[in-house]
Amino acid sequence: MKTSDDEEQLLHRGGRPTLADLIDTLEFSPSKGAIELHGARMVLSRATFGADLQDELVRRFGEHEAKVLMMRLGYRNGREDAEFIRQGWPNLDIGDAFTAGTRLHMVTGTVRVETLHNDFDFKTDRFSGDFLWHQSVEALEYQRRHGRALAPVCWAQTGYAAGYASVFFRKLVLYKEVSCAAMGDKSCRVVGKTVDGWGKDDPFVRMFLDEVLVNRAEMPSRLRKTAGKTAPMDSAGLEDRVVAPVRHTLEKIAHAGLNALITGPEGAGCRLAAAWLHVARSGHGKTHRCHATSPQLPALLDSLRQTISAPGARGQTLIIEGIEALTDDLQVALIDMIKTDGVPPEALLLVGLSHLPLRLLRRDTGLRSELIYALSVLPVAMPPLSARPDDLADLAACYLAQMRPKPGLEVLSLTEEAKAFIRTAAWPGNLPELRATLIRAALCADAPPVIDREDLDMARLDPQPPALLQGGDNFSELWDQLVPLFEAGIGVDTLVSRIEQRAVAEADGNVSAAARLLGLSRPKLDYRLKNPV
């Protein structure tokens, strides 16, 4: 193949794999009737195929639904290509792997990409990009068929760019086409930012989140460079980690179109599991949350009944907390809505939440058996953190990744000793307690962004008073020893001051260790030492 000097430079420009690298791996096997790019099966088809697909979707479903579907297909394709690059070139620098998406777009004949601005940092999830798309196949085919467009039409390509880029960050990356060759512009121009950069109230962002992303498995995951290994669950989001013990059951419920009952202790993640189930089953629909005793619940049921009976109704999810407190009238209304004796409405997902286990819901509450059985075809029981010691360090890492105690700080991390402490400590308050402890430790850490065992120990709130202060023989013995001191004129303040000084001496001058021993915060002990009574 003869190329010009400019084309030759373009073939070798950028990181690995370059366009030349990719083309070198392109093979056509007549005996198999297959085209492969670095071992991946490809198909050579006319550019009109994509235009035909877009036109048919618009004709059948309307422009908006066609746009959503094309973006969705592009998004999936982009994610697959990102994984293709990672697996095909496992030792590739993460920056080169990220920018390889632009070269894949070119090698497939989709578009020629010119980078105007591309700023990214994988550690802090910072990203902004500005690109020109020359000779876009979607734009040119649209213009050839329909003339000048009134709005950008490169739907599959913007979806592809979002899918590819989002694999490399813990935040979803979205691209907007701000000018389009189909509209008469010289070339297409796309701008990319994270969801936070655009703002979650942005109409395009809301459309993408509510309609294009329809499955939790399609949400962005972080690509981490590992030595010859696929990225582990470190790349999963917090919700995915929380629901990991019950995910298989939730997937079955979503696939079968069942209603659900999710039980578990306070703070174990029941609400997160319900939200995960909503996205897995009907991510484009709307979620309604209400407590069983809320006075708004009857009106909400009436509104939902009208919504799901309307033609073309989209998925609605109703999450009722404290379901054991439902009145009999409301139970009857719910049973009627989900039609337990017939075919349940596809547009409604009912999720009941309770801190009581299923056996007690059946035995000790006023819930009707018909409602319990309708919700518990596949019951979901969220385990407490005490039953998940191996998951605790990873859950903590997910919380820390979301925290930025002070602007500009690196992502917070735990020492190995801190991870061991988290795995062995009791967390009766479950996820909220773990999160609150991590926030306190992050704010008060001696050497941020690293959090060590001492930081966590100081951040713990122990609601149980020492056994010594609960009465009994131990306290009586201590009191008998203290009385002679008080009678000799040594007051409580003097005694406490001496105890504090002795604790510091026992800790070899380490005020943090002394404070931990005494059950005080380090700042409080430091103040008391400097300001004795």
UniProtKB/TrEMBL annotation:
Xref: InterPro entries: AAA_lid_NorR, Homeodomain-like_sf, HTH_Fis, NO_sig/Golgi_transp_ligand-bd, P-loop_NTPase, Sigma_54_int, V4R, XylR_N
Listed Pfam families: AAA_lid_14 (PF25601), HTH_8 (PF02954), Sigma54_activ_2 (PF14532), V4R (PF02830), XylR_N (PF06505)
A Gene Ontology biological process term: regulation of DNA-templated transcription
Highest taxon of source: Bacteria
Keyword Transcription (UniProt): yes
Keywords from the UniProt entry: ATP-binding, Nucleotide-binding, Transcription, Transcription regulation, Two-component regulatory system
Protein name: Sigma-54 factor interaction domain-containing protein
One GO MF term: sequence-specific DNA binding
Domain (Sigma-54 factor interaction) ranges: 246-443
